[in-house]
Amino acid sequence: MGFYKFILVFLHILLYIRAIILLVWEAFRNFTTGIFGARGNLKEIHLHSKSLQTLPSHISLVILEQAISFSDVAKLVVWCMAMGIKYISVYDHKGILKGDTAKLSSEIIYKQKEVFAKEAKRYTFVLRNSRTKFDHTLAPTQVCITVLSAEDGKQDIVEAAQEFCMSVKQKKYSPKQLDTDLFNDMLKATTGLPDPDLALKFGAVSSVMGFLPWQIRLTEFLTHQTHHNVKYSAFLQSLQKYSRCEKRFGK
C-alpha cells in the first residue's frame, strides 16, 4: 500500500507542477501579446470579426476559478458583443455572478464605454437568468446575456423531466411525443436560446463542473488557464481556432 500511495502522491505533484507551468506560460504569452499584439478597440475587433470564416451564434464563458473578477468577465462579454455574437452565457459553479447581476451589469456598461466609446449606446443587451424567458423576436438588435450556475444543469434536467411526467399524467402529452425539441423547450436555463457553439473554459480544472450537460453535445471547448487579466489577443486566438474547426457532427 505504501508504494501505491507514493505513486499517487508523485502523480499529484506532477499534475500540480504541470498546472503551474501552464499558468505561468499563459501569463507570459498574454503579457507579450498584450504589448506587441492586438489591443481590442472597436475598429480592430470589427476587422477581426470580418476576417473570421465562422462566428459562434452562442458563446459560453465558463469560469471555473474560485476568485472571480467581475471586471474581467465583463471585458470578455463586451468583446463578444463587439464581435457581433448575439447570445452570450456566463457560468460559474457557485452562482457568484448570478447572485450579483447588478454588479455584473454595471461592469459591462463600464467596459462598453471603454471599448465602444461614442458608439456605446448602439450596443444594448438584456441580462437574464434561467427564470427569465427571452424572446429575441421582441428585441432583435439586443444581445442576450444569460447568467448560469450549477442549478441550471442537472437540476434543470430533473425539473424538465418532472414537468413532462406531470403533463403526461394530465394527458397534455403522450410518452411517445417526447423528443429532443420538446425537451429543449422545457429546459428553463436556455429557453429561446440556441445551444452553445463555443465554450471558453477558464481555470486549471479538467471538468466543466456541472455546466449545461444537456446543451453541450456539439459544443467546442477551448481552455484558458485563467480569466484574470485576460488579453484580447488570447480571446481572438480562440475565435480564430474555432473558425478553423471542421464540424462533422459525429460523422
Automatic annotation (TrEMBL):
The name this protein goes by in its record: ditrans,polycis-polyprenyl diphosphate synthase [(2E,6E)-farnesyldiphosphate specific]
Any one annotated GO CC term: endoplasmic reticulum membrane
A GO MF term: ditrans,polycis-polyprenyl diphosphate synthase [(2E,6E)-farnesyl diphosphate specific] activity
Enzyme Commission no: 2.5.1.87
Record pathway: Protein modification; protein glycosylation
Gene3D superfamilies tied to this protein: Decaprenyl diphosphate synthase-like
InterPro entries to which the protein is assigned, alphabetical: Nus1/NgBR (IPR038887), UPP_synth-like (IPR001441), UPP_synth-like_sf (IPR036424)
Compartments, record wording: Endoplasmic reticulum membrane
Needed cofactors: Mg(2+)
Transmembrane intervals: 6-25
Keywords: Endoplasmic reticulum, Magnesium, Membrane, Transferase, Transmembrane, Transmembrane helix
Similarity comment text for this entry: Belongs to the UPP synthase family.
Top EC category: transferase
Catalytic activity: n isopentenyl diphosphate + (2E,6E)-farnesyl diphosphate = a di-trans,poly-cis-polyprenyl diphosphate + n diphosphate
